[in-house]
Design a protein that fits this description.
alpha+beta; 34% helix; 3 domains; Double Stranded RNA Binding Domain; 8 strands; 4-stranded antiparallel β-sheet; Ribosomal Protein S5, domain 2
Length: 251
């Protein structure tokens, strides 16, 4: 008889070989107690299912990391692809709810004013209107890219001279200030910051608090320092060395 028996079926097969055949149940019990038989417990029912689930969770936790102390976490799963940095940074100036009166009643929509720039001399202002905020922002960003202009800046990213402009009731004056940083308020600050200007001071001489009018006055003042269409410098692009070698071989 083997030393370890794992299932009850093997016990039933081994016991007849170890004990003689008897007819009296009392004698059979005494013989059964005298014969040393090792019986191993067998997990059945819900206990076996629970053990199996724990083992599966431990395997998943070992493969994918442990999240929150529970087996089977997804902390170490498939790595996400890095997000591409957008070409222009954007800043929302104002979001207004506008009402249009029609024959059936009133219709509400959202109007968004947004400014976009690359912090290196390019700046644009756009507006968009839609029933949803996200759709209105996308329209405003598209309009800002369409109205993009490139400014003439100094080496220190400042203005060449003072500029003044007026749009409706908004009047602004923008002047360079060496070593004092960006000093501006209202809508002029995000516009000048996204344009990449550093040592500049903006001053509004009007009492209006309309952010859109102030932004349009600022953009009108910066237009006097912008390049004309087709005169803006083109940024140099880096060409891989392999492409340069192929071109020289062809020549």
């Amino acid at each position: 008889m083997s030393e370890e028996i794992k299932t009850t079926e093997e016990i039933v097969e081994v016991i007849p070989e170890a004990m003689p055949v008897v007819d009296t149940p009392v004698i059979a019990e005494v013989i059964a107690e005298a014969v040393p038989v090792k019986v191993a417990t067998v997990a059945t029912g819900n206990v076996a299912v629970a053990h199996e689930r724990v083992e599966r969770g431990a395997d998943r936790g070992a493969r994918g990391g442990n999240k929150g102390g529970r087996p089977g976490g997804r902390q170490g799963g498939r790595p996400r692809a890095p997000r591409e940095k957008p070409e222009f940074d954007s800043k929302t100036i104002s979001i207004r709810r506008v009402t249009r009166v029609v024959s059936g009643g009133r219709r509400f929509s959202l109007s968004v004013a947004l400014v976009a720039g690359d912090r290196n001399g390019r700046i644009g202002l756009g507006t968009g209107k839609a029933l949803d905020t996200q759709v209105a922002i996308e329209k405003a960003l598209k309009a800002a890219k369409k109205n993009m202009m490139t400014l003439r800046l100094t080496k220190n990213k400042s203005l060449l001279h003072d500029v003044t402009a007026k749009f409706k009731s908004a009047e602004v004056m923008i002047m360079p200030n060496k070593g004092r940083g960006l000093i501006a308020g209202s809508s002029a600050r995000p516009i000048l910051a996204l344009a990449g200007l550093t040592d500049v001071t903006a001053k509004f001489y009007s009492g209006t608090k309309n952010k859109l009018n102030n932004a349009r006055a600022t953009m009108k003042a910066l237009e006097t320092l912008a390049y004309r269409h087709g005169d803006a410098p083109v940024a140099a692009t880096k060409v891989p060395e392999a492409v340069v070698e192929v071109v020289t071989e062809i020549k």
